[in-house]
Write a structure and sequence with these properties.
The protein has 501 residues and is α+β, with helices and mostly antiparallel strands. It has two domains: 196 residues, Hypothetical Protein Pfu-838710-001 (Beta Barrel); 242 residues, Alpha solenoid (CHAD domain), CATH 1.40.20. The protein contains 15 helices and nine strands. Helix 8 runs antiparallel to helix 9 and helix 9 packs across helix 11.
Amino acid sequence: MNAETELKFRIAPRRISSVLSNHGRRRDRSEQTLLSTYFDTNKHKLRRHGATLRVRKMDGRFVQTVKAGGSGGVTRGEWESEIAGAKPDLAKAKNSPLDDFASKKLARKLKPVFQTDIHRTAQAKRVGNSEIELALDRGRISAGRRSRPVSELELELKSGRIADLFHLARRLERTTGAELDLRSKSERGFKLIAGGGGGAQHAEPIALKPALSAREAFSVIAHSTLRQITANADPVRAMDSEGVHQMRVGLRRLRAAISLFKEMLPRASTARIKSELKWLTSELAPAREIDVFLNESIAPVAGQGLPRRGVRAIQKRFSRQRTTAFARARDAIASPRYRRLLIDVIEWIETGRSRSDGGRTIAAYAAEVLDRRIKKAQKQGKHLDDLDPRQRHKLRIKVKKIRYAVDFFESLYADRDQKQLASLSRRLKQIQSALGSLNDFMAHCELATEAALTAPPTNRRAQAFASGFIVGHEREAAHGLMRDAEKELQRLHRLSVAPRK
C-alpha cells in the first residue's frame, strides 16, 4: 500500500497557462493522456464500503488502483498494480479494502460505471526540503450521455513536510485564484450518474470506529463538515436558496463540532478559525433570512383578503432585498478570503497541535458529552416561559449542538440501540424547529416593522396594514410553538444505552 498526501483545487481553465509559466522550465514537465474507467456493481457496493476501483490506461499499460474511501483528509491509502488488460483483476487487489468483501461473485458483477479522459501536465517542485508534484488535469468525466469538464490542480507531497504542501497551496491560491475542492474524480463521477451533481449537497453519513481516539474522531467529523461547505460553493454561486441553506448547515455543523471537542483543540488557532467561520456565516445569513421571510411569512398571507397593493409592495421590496443578499453570499464565495479560509481550516484540522484528550476513545467521549449536554438542556428547558428571546436563542443553539452530536456519533451505537437514538434525534429536531421558528418570528417582526416605517408615502398605509397582519399571524403561531417546545423539552431523555466499545 502507498499513502498519498495531496490537495486538490479547482482552477479556471484560463488560469492554467499562468501556473505552467510561473513554475519551472518546460523541459522539466511531463505530459500524459490518462484514460481511466471506474468499476462498481449496479448497486455501487464498492462505494458503499468506502472503496473505489479504477483501471487506467497510460503509455500502453493498464494499471489497476484501489483507493480507500476517505472523509476528506489529505492522506489516504491506495493499492496499485499493473494488470494484463482493461478489466479489473481482483487477484491483484490483495490486502486492499476490497479484501473484506471481494469474491468471484463480486468479480462477475463489476461493470464500468463512468470514465475520465484527462490530459495531465506534471512537474516536480522543491519547496524547502520537500518534494511536491504539481499536476494540472484537463479533460472530462463521462457517464453515458452525461459529462462534465475537469480543470483542476493537484499538489501531492512526495517527500518532506506537510507544512510545505500548505505553503505552496497558499502561494498558488494568491497567484491563480485556485479554490480547494475536496471531491475526488470518483465522487464527481458518482454524482454525475445520480443526475449531474450540480445542486445543493446535504451532509454525508459519518462512520466512526469506537476505538478511535477522541481527537481522531474530531478530524473525521471536521473533514466531513468541510466537505459539505465546499460542495455547496457552486449552488451558492448560482444563487440557489437550498445551496445557501446547506452551506450554512455545514458551517453550523463544523462550529458545533468545535464546541463539542473544544477541551482538546488548540486555543489560539481554533479562535482564529472560529472567527473566520463566523464571518462566512454572517455573509450568508441575510440571504437565508429574507428568503424564509418571503416564502414562509409573506407568501402564505398573500391570498387572505389583504390589500393587493400592500402585499405587492412588500413582496417587491423584499424580493429586491433577497437579490441583494444572495449577491452578497455569491461575492463572499468568490473572494480571496473564502479561498484562504478553506486552506486554513484543512491545515488546522491536519496539523493543529491538540491538547490532551485524556486517552479517551471516542466511544467513551461521546457517551460523556451527550449525557452532560442533554442534562443541561433538560434543566434549562424547565423554565422556558421565564426565558427572554436571547436566552431562548441560546437554548436553541444548545439543542442544535446535541442534535448534531447525535448525528456525528450515530455509527458508534449498535443496531439494537438505533431506535432509541432515532427517537432522541426526532425530539431534538422538534424542539430545535419550534425554538427556531420563535427566533424567526422575532427577526420577521423587525423586518415587517422596518418595512412599514420606511414605506414610500404612496403605499405606506397599505404596506403597514400588510406588515401588521404578517406580524399578527406569526404571533398567533408563536404561542403554539412555545407550547410544542415546552412539551418536547419535558419529554427529552438521556440515553439509557452506551456506544459500542
